Amino acid sequence: MFHHRHGCGWPFLLLLLLLFPFDESSLLRGQAAAADSHRVVLYPQSTRVSSIVSSKYRTAFHFQPPKNWINDPNGPLYYKGLYHLFYQYNPGSVVPGNKTWAHSVSADLVNWLRLESALDRTEPYDAKGCWSGSVTVLADGRPAILYTGADDVKNQAQCIAFPSNSSDPYLREWTKPSSNPVIRPDGPGLTPNQFRDPTTGWTGPDGQWRIAVGAELDGYSAALLYKSEDFVSWSRVDHPLYSSNSSTMWECPDFFAALPGNTSGLDLSAAIPNRAKHVLKMSLDSCDKYMVGVYDLEADKFVPDNVVDDRRLWLRIDYGNYYASKSFFDAKKGRRIIWGWANESDSSSDDAAKGWAGIQALPRTIWLDSDGSQLLQWPVEEVESLRRNETNHQGIELKKGDMFEIKGTDTLQADVEIEFEPGTMDEADAFDPSWLLNTEKHCREADASAPGGLGPFGLVVLASDDMEEHTAVHFRVYKSKHKHMILMCSDLRRSSLRSGLYTPAYGGFFEFDLEKEKKISLRTLIDRSAVESFGGGGRVCIMARVYPVALVDDRGAHMYAFNNGTTAVMVSQLKAWSMKRAQVNVKKG
Ligand SMILES: OC[C@H]1O[C@@](CO)(OC[C@@]2(O[C@H]3O[C@H](CO)[C@@H](O)[C@H](O)[C@H]3O)O[C@H](CO)[C@@H](O)[C@@H]2O)[C@@H](O)[C@@H]1O
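Structure for fructan beta-(2,1)-fructosidase, as requested:
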């Protein structure tokens, strides 16, 4: 029998059991299947599914403007006591196009004040859009924007802008000098409409500035390297910072240094300790991938520690809906922070009806693990200021089929931290490396309801009373040669009764010394249409967008810790908080 702990729905479940007997070993699938039979009778979709046009899907603490289309975060920086976030914004519409640099500021990375646009399409060289780029603080303390201007035939060139008044901490007004564009799409191997998204600058041993620009080079991907004395006149270095024939154009490259095992960040323009590694991030295939390596100062090249030919195996910043990320060194707290964009997962006609599309994922502190092999991420600590009414449990044993309902928390706006401790690791199934090639496929097959030796166990969020709608974030433990391989999935397939949504089962693997660590942690932040999860202390991150009908209908939602694996797991610690609404772009300054 399954063990439903502290559950709300006993009478209902009992009724379901009587009416629709199901395989006891697969509670989630069983409930959904039973509910499926109900759906026709109780919830004919035409009358049941209320409109997606609801302010209830707008996020309470993820960054979004009041309306219209947004994409990439651009040029984040900390300047004179304020955090600045610029982002790609179409001021006139909810579809991509006519991009400008919208601009917001914050004292705490949580509450944001909307300012006037920083860059608009005013010149022939940016007539089709002021596209993505970065901010660099120059030696005299002045920030400079480098962005991509797309002209009327969408050829791309890199352009510069300076604050009209750099003593203004709000950096409200920006000026484009007559020297623009400062880097044209010229030179051997370049494709003029595949040349964009300049990185933040750094200085080399010769004191000269360097930047990388995403490009297609001879049909392949490259982070092209440019050098300058004064940040205004640039020349192309005869070799790229790094290039690869495993893919085509890389968008939004990001290049930074990090010390293994140290959560403090490094400022790329300052002296970089010898022990430091470098990270090159690139956006392609609708996701953000990265390589860890060293920056060979003599050759002026990035050299990855491992060259992996098959790009499906490249490490990922996030295994969900997350793209075009950009990091910056936060001089206030000495950390590196990364921002990334999460698109809507509905149709563009839904977006048009809603009048808004796109959010930014939470700002995350990002650092390298102790052996320098992968990045770890965690929401910036400031997010915790929104936590209210803590719920705390320890020592909950979850046997196969158990669900433990987390009560007393606003399940639509919540922050949950759980530690799972398997009783034994003996039953873990064997790992097959071929799963790494398609983790989403593996998450579809390794469903939350399909029992394994050790797992699935995890969290079910935004679950309707009858489980007809729910999103499962869960782990499965596999034995591999040396350590364990942990699969983390965020399965959206039953997240909504609506049709026409993109509802994959996202997934990523991480290697973990479970014998030593004993516990696997999960942190999930639920913010209405956003479910952002961090597994294994930030080893795998999954950003997801969901649109449960129950949320709009005010039917509430449930949240459960569950285990459907053969081996019992102990929830050694469970903490949940309701999250207060932040002031995000509600006011214009
Ligand atoms: O806003 C331009 C910047 O955005 C980037 C990366 O997101 O380029 C995206 C790109 O278009 C694709 O992405 C759009 C969303 O950003 C999508 O809606 C569109 O359908 C896609 O083609 O933007 C340009 C212009 O559309 C196109 O060449 C890119 O692929 C970044 O590279 C740009 O600076």
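The helical segments are 10-19, 27-42, 45-48, 348-354, 439-445, 514-517, 549-552.
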